[in-house]
Amino acid sequence: PLTQIWIARFSTPSAASFTASLMVGSRVPFAFEASTKPPRDGNKFALRFWANRHARGMEITYSIVEATLRTLAPLFKLIGYERMETPMVVVEKTIKSALFDCRMCGQCILSSTGMSCPMNCPKNLRNGPCGGVRANGNCEVYAEMPCVWVKGWEGSRLMKEGDKIMDVQKPIDHRLKGRSSWLAVSQGAHE
Q1: Closest among 104, 119, 108 to 178, alpha carbons compared
Q2: Which helix or strand (DSSP H or E) is residue 89 part of?
Q3: Of residues 103, 64, 83, the one with CA closest to residue 181
Q4: CA–CA distance, 4 with 34 (Å, rounded to integer)
Q5: Dihedral sign computed on CA atoms, order 128, 27, 172, 119
Q6: Is the distance from CB of 144 to CB of 138 less than 8 angstroms?
């Protein structure tokens, strides 16, 4: 009742309809999410859950990819990093979207989060779970979706350098959204 009074008194018609839609349970996408993409149901197969369960193998693969990118840095520099951006984004997005439901934040920290992309968290938390993780390990916001950080912790326990999950991550720089983090790795600009 108080919410409805506030909506009627202080909001515009479009804000009122938006807020009213929230009250009936419609889903609002989060910052790095397509509006049409539903959250992952933990009971259905998703390659991101497979990658998380095989975090040690993914860690080894990721180390090889990083070493390869650093080796190719002189070639990328010769061609030009700006010219390489578009093709690298296409390749990176194709691979990482399939394996990790990557949101192309431009600041990939998969090797520090148990091969679980924190940008899949509806709250975009990059330093651990919120206080609302359900008793079954599912997300506070989307009850059918496993918490990204619970999965990240499980994956990190399988990794050689799994304790990196305890490192404090920098806040997300939204200016890098859609950029290739692999090019940043090749330039040594990515930690």
Answers
A1: 104
A2: helix 81-100
A3: 103
A4: 29
A5: positive
A6: yes
What number of other Cβ atoms are within 10 A of residue 74's Cβ?
10
pLDDT score recorded for residue 29: 52
How many angstroms from the chain centroid is the CA of residue 50? 16
Dihedral angle, C-alpha 53, 154, 108, 138, nearest 10 °: 100
Structural tokens at position 44: 């259905």
Given a cut of 50, the residues of the chain with pLDDT beneath it are 1-25
Q: What is the 3-state secondary structure (H, E, C) of 110-174?
A: HHHCCCCCHHHCCCCCCCCCCCCCCCCCECCCCCCCECHHHHHHHHHCCCCCHHHHHCCCCCCCH
Buried b (16+ CB within 10 A) or exposed e, 129-146: beeebeeeebbbbbeebb
End-to-end CA distance of the chain: 50
pTM above 0.85, yes or no: no
Place of tokens 């990196």: 164
Nearest-Å Rg of the Cα atoms of the chain is: 19
The pair of three-digit structure tokens given for residue 5, joined into one six-digit string: 């009074």
Query: What letter represents residue 113's amino acid?
Result: T
Q: What are phi and psi of 14, to 5 degrees?
A: -70, -40
- The residue type of 153 is W
